Amino acid sequence: MGPHLPSIFLLGKSHGHIDDFKPLAAQMTGFNKGYSYNIKNVFTGEYPNLKIDYSLVLLKRGDLPNAGSPSAISSAPGQLNFSWIDNNGKGKAMKSDMAFVAAFSEEKDNWECELDAANRSTGNYSLNLKQFSGKSVHTYIGFISADRNEVSDSMYTGIVEIQKENTP
User: Fold this and answer.
1) CB-based contacts of 117: which residues, under 8 Å, 6+ apart?
2) CATH T-level fold of 6-161
3) How do the domains of the chain map onto residue ranges?
4) Global confidence as pTM
5) What is the full per-residue pLDDT of the chain (168 aa) written as tens digits?
């Protein structure tokens, strides 16, 4: 069976906080615009040997500035640590903007996300990923304005292997 995208789009649709691609959607829903964008841009190879380039997946898209120098690492068992440089005051960016973070395990075909992770001004957030302990995940970050009217493009922050928890 080839690659599939349904779980990628369930992430945005199931939370319903924001119509992720709405500013770009003309004569279609934001969800459909996002699905269309990803279908056209994330596959590599030739059928039937298609693969998803997870670095090209967009979970959200908008005009709000993303943070400076975002990164993701696993510095403790079962934890994914995001960090970024606070750039409030740049364009529409405000210290009250909320980070959204996400991790996707290809092996488990499962997402974990937090849409209200931390204020932009905080500069870091730790996501509990015990269920992905010892597994590699694709990681993403972005920002949503406090009034939920603005969103940044999601940014791919790379593949991170989640440190394995010590089992007795």
Assistant:
1) 82, 98, 99, 100, 101, 125, 127
2) Immunoglobulin-like (2.60.40)
3) 6-161
4) 0.84
5) 344 444 444 444 434 433 455 554 456 666 667 777 777 888 888 888 888 899 998 888 889 999 999 999 999 999 999 999 999 999 999 999 999 999 999 999 899 999 899 999 999 999 999 999 999 999 999 999 999 989 999 999 999 999 998 766
